[in-house]
Amino acid sequence: MKFLCDEMLGRLAKWLRVMGYDVLYLKNVEDEKIVENAIKEDRILLTRDKKLAKKFKNSLYIEEKDLDSQIGEVVEAFKIAKNEENFLSRCIICNVEIEEIEKEKIKGKVPENVFENFEEFWICKKCGRIYWAGTHWKNMKEKMEKIH
């Protein structure tokens, strides 16, 4: 399942990526182009714009303003489940799948204490962002547990 979030739903896009979903996030794009992208890439449009949601049948109007409630709306509407295997499998910035990288290859690219205290690292091949299972990882998992 692939999604497209318009500019009003940037935080939702990020958290759906955390959950492992392919989410295109568009800012400063005309409604027609948003719909065109959704059709071309076979994506479900998520929007807080009622008019835009009515223009495109494969969309969900997100009523809630609160992030947790927005995630809950998407989970309920599409019956998506948390999938441990896909959790944090995508770059939360670029939406590209992250890949495991050898520890030695990231030396000097992460804080020294992180390098010393963690053995597994992942990298986004597009933007170069490096990920590891630190406290932020645990906090994100706990947030997802509460929402589902």
Could you please describe the fold and organization of this structure?
This protein is an alpha/beta fold. It has six helices and seven strands. The strands form two sheets. A four-stranded parallel beta sheet has the order 2-1-3-4, with helices on both faces. It has a three-stranded antiparallel beta sheet with strand order 5-6-7, with no helix packed on it. Helix 1 (10-18) links the parallel strand 1 (2-5) and strand 2 (22-25). The mean pLDDT is 91.
Question: Briefly, what is this?
Answer:
38% of the residues lie in helices and 17% in strands. The protein has 148 residues and is α/β, with parallel strands linked by helices.
Class from secondary-structure proportions: alpha/beta
In whole angstroms, the N-to-C terminal distance is 17 Å
Query: What share of the residues lie within helices?
Result: 25-40%
Low-confidence stretches: none
The biggest beta sheet reads: 4 strands, parallel
Helix tally?
A: 6
Count of DSSP E strands?
7
Keywords:
alpha/beta, four-stranded parallel β-sheet, three-stranded antiparallel β-sheet, elongated
Q: Topology of this protein?
A:
Elements: E1 2-5, H1 10-18, E2 22-25, H2 31-40, E3 44-47, H3 50-55, E4 59-61, H4 67-78, E5 98-101, H5 112-117, E6 121-124, E7 130-131, H6 135-147
Parallel strand pairs: 1-2, 1-3, 3-4
Antiparallel strand pairs: 5-6, 6-7
